[in-house]
Design a protein that fits this description.
Length: 276
């Protein structure tokens, strides 16, 4: 219960801050407003939350608790203090999710699920919550297994889950950090301008900047792209799913099972320049 209260309080607090920031200083004026996009995006969040609560209520924390009871996992091989296990848990889980993100782009079956996230034609805090329930379920299973194999620290897992949700809303936010600050922050953390490139309609840009919290995995594995290309307008979203109907919750839920009407490279839609 304490974990649930902490996560819910952090979620609503960060969401409120991001919405206020987007209202006060948006990166750009959105062509498709909140009334058109939020019902679908938040509807997906609600469906996913209900399913996860019913099918895997403890999620990643359960994997960490099981590993601790069984003495299983990397960090349980020797007795280590929390000052080591908490940051190690945090770093290893972030790396695991970086790898998961890459897989969801490169494995065609997984991309059919993940493309729902990329089909949002605008970016704001709710885009960071826009995932298909099946993808969320697979991610929960992966984190359970990863926490068990890592022998993850339970406190580290809870902190990671809280900051993961906050980072998802922040990096998708319709906000911008001042140039110099963005340059310094992205040396360690993913910024909105850095992640904006990942939502490009052009596939080489889509397949870059996979990080969620830390930016150094993309630099280490050479998937980092510092700026969008200059020879064409920057386009957000997928060409295949740009109609008003495609924003409806029923269409979003069946999107992975639909054949896109326009295959190949993604083009079209609203423009937004970002990245350095």
């Amino acid at each position: 219960m304490n974990e649930t209260v902490l996560r819910m309080a952090a979620f609503f607090g960060v969401f409120a801050v991001m919405v206020a920031w987007e209202l006060a200083a948006p990166r750009k004026l959105l062509d498709a407003g909140r009334r058109a996009r939020w019902p679908g995006n938040l509807g997906l969040l609600l469906v996913s939350a209900v399913l996860v609560r019913l099918l895997a209520p403890a999620g990643a924390v359960a994997g960490a608790l099981w590993a601790a009871d069984a003495g299983f996992g990397l960090l349980n091989l020797v007795e280590l203090p929390p000052v080591v296990t908490i940051p190690a848990t945090f770093l290893l889980l972030d790396l695991v999710l970086w790898g998961q993100h890459v897989a969801f782009h490169r494995v065609p079956l997984l991309w059919r699920l993940h493309r729902l996230h990329h089909s949002d034609t605008e970016l704001d805090a709710t885009t960071g919550l826009r995932f298909h329930p099946i993808e969320i379920g697979l991610s929960v299973l992966l984190k359970f297994a990863a926490c068990a194999l890592i022998g993850a620290d339970v406190v580290g897992v809870v902190l990671f889950e809280v900051l993961l949700n906050a980072a998802a809303m922040f990096t998708h936010g319709n906000v911008r950090l001042p140039g110099r600050i963005d340059g310094w922050v992205r040396r360690v953390l993913v910024t909105p301008d850095m992640h904006l490139i990942h939502h490009s309609a052009w596939r080489p840009e889509t397949d870059s900047n996979f990080g969620t919290i830390f930016s150094w995995w993309d630099r280490l594995f050479r998937t980092y792209r510092g700026a969008a290309r200059e020879d064409a307008p920057f386009v957000v979203g997928l060409e295949e799913f740009r109609s008003a109907e495609d924003r409806r919750i029923d269409r979003l839920l069946v999107q992975p099972f639909r054949t896109p009407p326009v295959p190949g490279p993604r083009r079209g839609g609203s423009t937004s320049r970002g990245g350095r």
